[in-house]
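ARCHIVE CARD
Drawer: 12
Card no.: 0347
Subject: one protein chain, sequence and derived structure
Cross-reference: see card 0346
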Amino acid sequence: MENAQLVALSRQSILRNHLDVIANNMANINTSGFKSQNLHFAEYIMPVADGSVFEPQDRAISYVDMFTTRTDFTHGPIKMTGNEFDLSLNSDGFFAVQMPDGTEAYTRSGAFRLDSTGQLISADGSPVMTDQGPISFNADDGRVEIAQDGTISTRLGIRGRIKVVDFEDPRTLEKIGNTMFKGENPIPAQEVRMVQGAVEGSNVYGITEVTRLIEVTRAYDSTAKIVKDLDELRQQAISTLGKLQA
């Protein structure tokens, strides 16, 4: 009975984490460049005694163990904004931004703007990287035009190219914020298709997340009932055994 209750409690613990992931997805349904996440489970087999002198032998007990939180990197919808510094990728790859420690992070969110010094920055204030490093603009540049391959042109001529990188397996990226990722061994993205004046929307679909929410809530309620029933059985067993006379 105790083993059954422990299995149920392990399931409840994971379902609570699953609810947190779904809630975070739904909270970022309108966040530019956000990538939805889902929880993947693994079975944990409880070690058993290896002695064979007792019959029946111990049986394997399977607990629920959280394996990983996996990010879905499918592209979100492109939304036109008309802002000349907003960029979206209609292809694979990630924009590169500079972190405070000088390293790079990567994002699909192209909601860029100029700071007070004219430097191109991301929504959280990180400098956007080009093939020559961070870039700044001034009044002499005039209108900024960014081609499909990321080439930046102004009245002063070609100013560089927006840095876009890719990874052999994006699933290895480490999430460090709602839209930021860290990764090793980035490679130049191929066949870049950049759209100026647009941003990539979140790839979270409300109907999908609500369906998941209902399924997880039902599973949690069902597991909670099992725990309650097992607790009542234990109380009945203690009560019955307490009435027996030696």
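Annotation on reverse: The two ends are 24 Å apart (CA to CA). The mean pLDDT is 86.
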